[in-house]
Amino acid sequence: MSTIKRLTLLITLIALAACSALPGNPSAQNRQKWESQHITHYRINLSVGCFCAFRDRMPVSVEIDNGKILSILDNQGKPAADLQDAVGQYAGIDKLFDYIDAAHKAGAAQVDVTYNARYGYPESIIVDQSKQVADDELSLTISSFEVLK
User: Fold this and answer.
1) Burial class of residue 17 (count of CB atoms within 10 Å of its CB; 0-12, 13-18, 19+)
2) Model pTM?
3) Cα angle vertex 136, ends 132, 137, to 5°?
4) 3-state secondary structure the chain
5) Phi, psi (rounded to 5 degrees) for 10
6) What's the structural domain count of the chain?
7) Alpha carbon distance 91, 81 (integer Å)
8) Dist CA 44 CA 145 (whole Å)
9) Would you say residue 117 lies in a domain?
10) Which domain holds residue 111?
């Protein structure tokens, strides 16, 4: 191998190593920001946007304590335990981060996320698993966040 080829190879390897040392993805960075806050008891207003029968009851108010759902209230302030199965999988900041990571790992065609600047939690998530499939899009929006003591 010629000296020029070796030098080119060396430069390429150094460049690749430098790229891998760059900060992680936005989800990982914001998850770390969220976790550094040590917030365990909070309330969020969560809207699940999909082609679902319960859309008219959004947003729901969800109280979370140590990762457990304490209550779900619909947009009229009425208990909405019947929505546990539909929204429970997204009800909680850690669950939202897990959903984002799973969408990336599954190779979703679109994963757009906006993060809260102060706390790092996802404020808006849009996932489209496949551009060729109609009605598989899902949007999740946190319209309110309150730390509870």
Assistant:
1) exposed
2) 0.77
3) 105
4) CCHHHHHHHHHHHHHHHHHHCCCCCHHHHHHHHHHHCCCCEEEEEEEEECCCCCHHHCCEEEEEECCEEEEEECCCCCECHHHHHHHCCCCCHHHHHHHHHHHHHCCCCEEEEEECCCCCCEEEEEEECCCCCCCCEEEEEEEEEEECC
5) -60, -45
6) 1
7) 12
8) 5
9) yes
10) 25-147
In a domain, 20, yes or no: no
Q: Quick check: is 19 in a domain?
A: no
- Asked, for residue 2, whether it belongs to a domain, the answer is no
Which tokens is 83 given? 């929505």
- Which residue shows structure tokens 């551009």? 131
pLDDT means per 10 residues, the chain with 149 residues, are: 55 44 73 95 90 79 94 92 84 93 89 95 89 73 92
